[in-house]
Design brief:
The structure holds two protein chains of two kinds. Chain A is mostly helical. Chain A is built from nine helices and no strands. Chain A is 86% helix and 0% strand. The radius of gyration of chain B is 19 Å and the shape is globular. Classes of the chains: A mainly alpha, B alpha/beta.
């Protein structure tokens, strides 16, 4: 009974290591191609619009409601200790350090990670990627690199927008529902906010942008077996990107804030 | 290896796990020659083509183009050799996010650095060469019939005027009349360019029309090759069975009983 269990565990470990190695090799190759010319500017701009601009509504909605709920929940907790005045501080720090980058990235992972995996996966199973190669065009430079660059550049911008909208959401609830003085709320927010709070969130966003696009590209590029394979690639891209976002979130937080 | 060979393969093998797909392929294709490789489904035809193109690496053996060994090429060398190739994929493999003219002009623009306006003129000319008007260039591939997609794919394959053109099942999925139209276009385009052609197909009408020589692939080996005129008296029972499409013979299809 123990031997089959060990065999299963061994196979799972080997499969995990094999997958990790394959993703790492893919990432190194992709980054190397991304920093070397030629650069497909049209592709990069198109991906920036797709990842950044078209994600604004969903990220904005997520951010405003998160900020509103945060203010409301903080109030119900802090009122027990007569610490309501700390609500602006809690809202701004929570949003800029954690909720802004993590929630915005999760929304983008669902929207963009799946789309990238589906598009590249379909190109793989319909031989369009092979066609690129026969046209002397490196698929890594033409398909992968523009998405990685767009992810790394646009996610921090999206998160900055999400931070502002989220703080606005907290402000609206604070002022119009919890009867805070609007000037005091804003002063509290700005006085408590530090550069490192925003900067750490933007660093997280850039890393998450890389991970989301990398997972979408990797699972799409390596997909096989027709429609079922593309569907599986889409699911794997979103799940793996989400797990990696939470994992890297911890390590980046520790790097910035651990004493 | 023949000194005059445009493409030469020696002892090429390729396996996927325990399945041996190619088992020591020797093949020479002369400049300007049209070589057709026939064989049943799963005989290794597509793998052979992908190995020559460099889309797959063979396990062993040598593949040379114009006398230059291509196995083990780095990305830059591979891209240089790819400049000599054009490829018509079985399903067309047109880029569905681009318009038809952008598909045809893709190679000239992205790989050769041609200006978009000039590349558009090239695309319109190549579309004309395959019997399509300039108005087709404004459509997306999804708006075209299967036959028109094949024509566009052919136009894309010849857009950079390659020295070697590969055709992967060029008539699969087409009605007999459209298949013959595509065959005629292939013969015309290859002849106009003076290109060397390698085609894989299991359509014997197509093989007879577009090929100068035919080779038959069976269980990963080239079991016969010779001029098209000789295929009807090859003296090979496998070839006879295949070209006449008979269920009975030495080739046994693996069909599980119900």
């Amino acid at each position: 009974m123990n031997i089959p269990l060990l065999t299963v565990l061994g196979r799972m470990s080997l499969a995990f290591l094999e997958a990790t190695g394959a993703v790492t090799a893919f990432a190194f190759h992709a980054v190397r191609q991304a920093v070397q010319p030629p650069y497909y500017r049209r592709q990069i701009i198109s991906q920036m619009l797709e990842i950044g601009y078209y994600s604004l509504p969903v990220v904005g909605l997520t951010a405003i409601f998160t900020g509103m709920v945060l203010a409301l929940q903080s109030y119900t907790g802090f009122a027990r200790f007569s610490a309501e005045s700390a609500i602006p501080n809690v809202v701004v720090v929570s949003l800029t350090r954690e909720l802004g980058p993590v929630l915005a990235s999760l929304m983008v992972a669902g929207r963009i990670g799946a789309a990238i995996a589906a598009e590249i996966g379909t190109m793989r199973v319909t031989e369009q990627i092979d066609a690129l190669t026969t046209l002397s065009t490196d698929p890594f430079k033409y398909l992968i690199a523009p998405r990685l660059i767009a992810g790394i550049v646009t996610l921090p911008i999206l998160v900055l927008v999400a931070d502002i909208i989220g703080i606005l959401g907290g402000f609206l609830v604070g002022v119009y529902k919890l009867d805070f003085n609007d000037t005091a709320y804003l002063r509290n927010t700005l006085d408590f906010l530090e550069f490192q709070d925003v900067f750490s969130g933007l660093v997280k966003a850039a890393v998450f942008g890389f991970l989301i696009t990398l997972m979408g590209c990797y699972h799409g590029y390596t997909s096989k077996g027709g429609a079922q394979g593309v569907g599986m690639a889409t699911t794997n891209a979103v799940v793996s990107a989400s797990i990696l976002i939470f994992t890297f979130n911890y390590f980046i937080t520790e790097a910035f804030f651990a004493r | 290896m023949s000194a005059a060979s445009k493409i030469a393969l020696r002892g090429v093998t390729k396996s996927f796990g325990s399945k041996k797909v190619l088992q020591g392929i020797d093949l020479d294709v002369a400049p300007g020659e049209s070589m057709v490789v026939i064989g049943g489904s799963g005989s290794g035809k597509s793998v052979l083509l992908k190995c020559i193109l460099g889309l797959m690496a063979p396990d062993r053996g040598s593949i040379s183009v114009d006398g230059e060994e291509t196995v083990g090429f780095n990305d830059r060398s591979r891209a240089r050799v790819m400049r000599k190739f054009g490829m018509l994929f079985q399903g067309g493999a047109l880029f569905d996010s681009l318009r038809v003219w952008e598909n045809v002009a893709f190679g000239p623009i992205q790989s050769d650095g041609m200006k978009a306006e000039q590349a558009r003129e090239v695309a319109v000319a190549k579309l004309g060469a395959v019997g399509l008007g300039p108005e087709i260039g404004e459509l997306f591939p999804s708006e075209l019939s299967g036959g028109m997609q094949k024509r566009v794919a052919l136009a894309r394959a010849i857009a950079r005027e390659p020295e070697i053109i590969f055709f992967d099942e060029p008539t699969t999925g087409l009605d007999p009349i459209m298949a013959d139209v595509i065959n005629d276009l292939i013969v015309k385009c290859v002849s106009d360019l003076g290109a060397t052609a390698v085609s894989i197909t299991h359509d014997m009408a197509s093989a007879r029309k577009i090929g100068h020589r035919i080779g038959m692939l069976y269980e990963g080996r080239l079991i016969w090759q010779g001029p098209v005129a000789d295929i009807d008296h090859s003296g090979n029972a496998h070839v006879d069975q295949f070209i006449h499409g008979r269920a009975e013979g030495p080739i046994r299809m693996q069909v599980r009983k119900l």
